[in-house]
Every structure is written in C-alpha cells, then in structure tokens.
Amino acid sequence: MESVRSGGKRIVVTGATGNVGTSVVRALAADPEVASVLALARRRPSLGIRGVEWETVDVSRPGSEDRLAGLMRGADVVVHLAWRFQPTHDPVVTWRSNVLGSLRVFDAVVRSEVPALVHASSVGAYAPGPKEEPGVDESWPTHGWPDAAYCREKAYLERVLDTFELRHPDVRVVRMRPGFLFKETAAPEQRRIFAGRYVPGQLLRPDLLPFVPDVEGLRFQVLHTDDAAEAYRLAALRDVRGAFNLAAAPVIDAPKLAELLGCRVVRVPRALVRAAVAATWRVHAVPASPHLFDAVLRLPLLDASRAHHELGWSPTRSSEEALGAFLRGVREGRGEATAPLTGKKVG
C-alpha cells in the first residue's frame, strides 16, 4: 500500500466512491493518525489518493461477507457508507443492497474483531417531527416514514444496530445522522438520483425557472459533504459512541431557495405538487418518488449540539454555500473519476 504510516489507525471504508465516500477517504488519508485507508466499492475508480488502497466488493451479493471479513481483518475502524438509492420502482433491489448488504458488513465486523463501526444513518431515519428550530436531538424516535423505501431502510438498520450493540458491547458503534449532503463534484450523481439523467442542468438557470413552489412543510437542512466527512473522521478516531446529528445553518425553505436561484416564490398546494411528482415518477420520467416527497415534508429539523460538544465539530460552510456548490456542479457538469460521480457538462 502507498505511504503506510506506522503506528496509526487502519480504517476500512465501504461505499468509498460516492458523494460521502470520496470526501471521507480524503479526510482520513490526510490525517497523520491514520496509517492506511482501505476503500471498498463495487467498481474500482480511477482516483489516485495518497495513502488509499482500493478493493472491489459488492455487499449486496450473498457470500460477500467472507470477502468483507478478510478485507477487514486487522482494521481498527470500519466506516460503512455503501448505499444504493435506485431503482425507486423496485424497492426489493435497494433492500437487498442497503439492508442485507449492511447486515453482511456488520457480520464481517464481528467476525474480523474490528473494535469500532461508524455507520451512515440519516435524518431520513427519524419519525416525522417539528419543523422549527432548535430541532430534535438524537433521542427522537427513529421510525422513519414507512411509505418511503429510503426512510424505511434507514430506520430498519437503526433497529438492527440496537440489537447489534446489545450482543456486541465490545464494539464501539457510532451512527451519523446528517441532513442533505451536497458538494460540487457529486452534483451529477444527485441530479441523476432525484431528477433523472434526462433533466438537463440548464433548467437550473435562474432565467429558466419562473418560480420556486412554496409547499407546506418544505423546510430542510443542508450540509456540505466535506464538513460531514470531517465529522466522520472525528467519530472514527475519537472514543465516542451513539448517534450524532449533523446540520448547518440556515434552514433551507422556499424563500431561501428562491434567493439562491434568483426566482420568486409562489404558494402551491401540497397535493398539487405531489400529484405532479407521482405522475412523472409513474412513467419513469424522474426517479424521485412521491413517497420520498412525502417524507421530506415530514422530516424534523435537527439539533446538532451533541456533535459540537462531544466531537468538537462545526461546519465550515453554510447551508447556502453547500447548495451553491451543488448548483454550480450541476450547471458545469462537475464530477470525479468514479462510476457514481461521473460528470457531464450539460449547459
């Protein structure tokens, strides 16, 4: 392995080629306390990051836990980020990858006697809650919104980890629960996930957007992915356990979106917007489902005080800067040399 530092931590990262993974492996590789990073993904990328070794493994494949256990042997920490967002029309596929794949990762952690597991949960794991600040802390119920596959899967894994911690108290388990994560080079992937590959970035030009719909419940939190990666780095290296909310200010709503896009705000009934989302989703025009739309309007705001106090973490960029990075990335087709983040200039 390139540039292995003696005496430091050996960390394994699953899902290392996505939005969060690429930022996490860079943050870890740059830390002098980290001896090496083993980055796992379904497809080998063309990234050259000093101190990072790449291996391919598909956690959704039955039997992959044997290979995972071999790759994890001798590791000090496993950071589990692997996640599949699509196809939204076939939740069995995402269940096999996200839930059954995570069970294989957790099993491999135990079999390899890895002492620490940092798991990517989400605001999507939370039950519906208040949309007003200061937001909910980590004790808020993690029942998710059952009609949305993403939330259902995140919530299910929270229950799995509850049992995991009881059965394996010797493993330090951390659950990261961030809001929506954006950065420039992940914009093409996120455009494909939510809007589909046929929606061009030009449509995010202010002169082509007549207005931003103001829908009841449209209040959410955004965080730059690199700031989230710093929280993951701290959680991997510090002796902490439990869940950590991650979010930046200010809260994003329709007026804030309109300000960023240079548009006006128009109040639109929730049912009308949902009907439009449902219609386009049914004909496979966009991948974002009406069930996910329902969930977003019900997600609570997060109180990230615990991360500030116990991790010593604070975001270095505002939510507006994070969203601005995403918008630039979409318009310019920014990306990275990984399969999930491949970019294409569209406008």
Detailed description of the structure:
By secondary structure, the chain is an alpha/beta fold. The chain has a domain at 9-182 and 221-248 and 300-316: 3-Layer(aba) Sandwich (Rossmann fold). 37% of the residues lie in helices and 17% in strands. The protein contains eleven helices and 13 strands. It has helices spanning 19-29, 64-72, 91-111, 149-167, 187-194, 225-237, 254-261, 270-282, 290-296, 305-311, 319-332; strands at residues 9-14, 34-41, 52-56, 77-80, 116-120, 172-178, 180-182, 211-214, 219-220, 222-224, 242-246, 252-253, 264-267. A seven-stranded parallel beta sheet has the order 3-2-1-4-5-6-11, sandwiched between helices. It has a two-stranded parallel sheet with strand order 7-10. Strands 8-13 form a two-stranded parallel sheet. Helix 1 links the parallel strand 1 and strand 2 (34-41). Helix 1 (19-29) crosses helix 6, helix 2 crosses helix 3 and helix 8 (270-282) packs antiparallel against helix 9 (290-296). The chain is globular. The termini are far apart. The mean pLDDT is 91.
